[in-house]
Predict the structure.
Amino acid sequence: MNLPFVQSLARDRFLHLLLLI
């Protein structure tokens, strides 16, 4: 499992949610 990749993906999704607000 690629933890750094998952963390980066989660951060990207979090930023996307912030942009949707």
